[in-house]
Amino acid sequence: MTLSRTRLLIAAALLSVPAAVSAHRMWLLPSGTLFSGTDSWVTVDSAISNDLFYPDHFPGRIEQVKVWQPDGTPGRIQNGATGRYRSVFDVALDKPGTWKIGTEMSGVMGSFKIDGVEKRVGGRGGPPPAMAGQSGRPAAGTPPLTVADIPANATDVQLTETWSRNEIFVTAGAPTTTVLKTTGKGLEFAPITHPDGLVAGETARFRFLVDGKPAPNLKVTLVPGGKRYRDAEGARELTTGADGVLAIEWPAAGMYWLNATLTDSHATLPRATQRRMSYSTTLEVMTP
Amino acid sequence: MRLSSLALVGTAIAAPATAGTINVTIPAQSVAEYHRPYVAIWLEPAAGGPARTLALWYNGKPGGKEPGTKWLPELRAWWRKGGSSLALPANGVSGATRAPGTHAIPLPADLKPGAYILNVEAARETGGRELVRVPFTAPADAGRAAGTHELGSVTLTPR
């Protein structure tokens, strides 16, 4: 009885913060990162799955993908298509230099109580289908409540600002750094080693920033692709130094997925008490 | 007047001053589908520093919009060490791909004395890629190394 009750509570806690506990990884996989001339195209896979880089769960949403040309101005994706497990799109690399391609998402999620009934803000909207319509719960398919929907007499308002970036860097010709400029907002990747200049056996140095300041003791997960062909996942849990810098020696060439997450109390949205930030990128490491 | 200008032209062509010769062997491959490899030959100061490309053999017959440079990043060491920022075609550097055999490339005469690494990288369509490195000290050293599949012997002979 006590045990099952505890389990229920844990299950409820897990349900309320799906993004934080889910192992599902959002990833972008470019066909290459180094290109020649201004007549090359990169084709990119976008998906959400546990294992890298196997699209076997959900496709990425390409309407959210943005392109930054080497001069920092917006570019565009072409030939976008979404399949059952994977989305695909192309970018014509018609200007020399380093391009950035990816998604920036922000939102708010949490809960409040009104007349003793808990309501959720943000997320997918509505309860799971099995619970829809039960005891005052909204029907399935109801759009999620927003901060503006919180009534004045609500109690126990708990809101978390969520913020995530998932991006890749591809270079036509010589690498440039305009698209690597940081904005000073949220959790950011500020590479010291160019992300398109990574070589097996060499050490790369990446700095992470929070609101423009170095992020010390930040947990970073690094997962090599190709899990199906080895026993261990091979993920490495790394931590940035006091200067926010992470030094990574690459054991082998290949594609790597990097993710950093940080939760702090410096929310920027009104009424939000927490801020949860995530940064993901896919890096290609070449043979020497 | 006419004679002297001819003489000047003659001098310019006849005297590409060299400090030695690099011989690079491209091995014959016993394969069904053969394409000549792209080859980059460059010098790097042994202590690190900018690379100096001596020769680049790539697409000999580019057509249409394609300038023949699309596959150059396959020479991935050369591409990283400065190939990506080299404007092509480059005078005295760019050339067509070469057939199997031994090819001689002059070592430039203006090479300052010091320790260098001679790099020869080959990448072949539907084939492999190989990098051969020969450390030497200019101007006096000879050097020799050999590849195992995409490159044969690489020798450096001072003048």
Helix content of chain B: 10-25%
Distance between the termini of chain A: 60 Å
Overall SS class of chain B: mainly beta
Individual helix count of chain A = 2
Tell me how many strands of chain B there are: 9
Kindly report the spatial arrangement of strands forming the biggest sheet of chain B.
4-3-2-6-7
Nearest-angstrom radius of gyration of chain A? 21 Å
- CATH-assigned homologous superfamily of chain A: Immunoglobulins
Beta-strand portion of chain A reads over 45%
Mean pLDDT of chain A, nearest integer? 88
Low-confidence stretches of chain A: 1-21
- Which range best describes the helical content of chain A: under 10%, 10-25%, 25-40%, 40-55%, 55-70% or over 70%? under 10%
Q: How many domains make up the 3D coordinates of chain B?
A: 1
Number of helices of chain B: 2
* Largest beta-sheet details of chain B: 5 strands, mixed
Q: Please give the alpha-carbon distance between the first and last residues of chain B.
A: 35 Å
Radius of gyration of chain B: 17 Å
If you had to describe this structure to a student in words, what would you say it looks like?
- The complex is a heterodimer of chains A (288) and B (159).
- Chain A has 288 residues and is mainly beta.
- Chain A contains two helices and 20 strands.
- Chain A has one domain: Immunoglobulins (Immunoglobulin-like), CATH 2.60.40.
- In chain A, the strands form three sheets. In chain A, strands 2, 5, 6, 9, 10, 11, 13, 16, 17, 19 and 20 form an eleven-stranded mixed sheet that branches. In chain A, strands 1, 3, 4, 7 and 8 form a five-stranded antiparallel sheet that branches.
- The N terminus of chain A is likely disordered.
- Chain B has one domain.
- Chain B is built from two helices and nine strands, in the order αβββαββββββ.
- Chain B is globular, with a radius of gyration of 17 Å.
- The longest helix of chain B is centred in the first third of the chain and has 13 residues.
- Classes of the chains: A mainly beta (288), B mainly beta (159).
- Chains A and B meet through strand 2 of A and helix 2 of B.
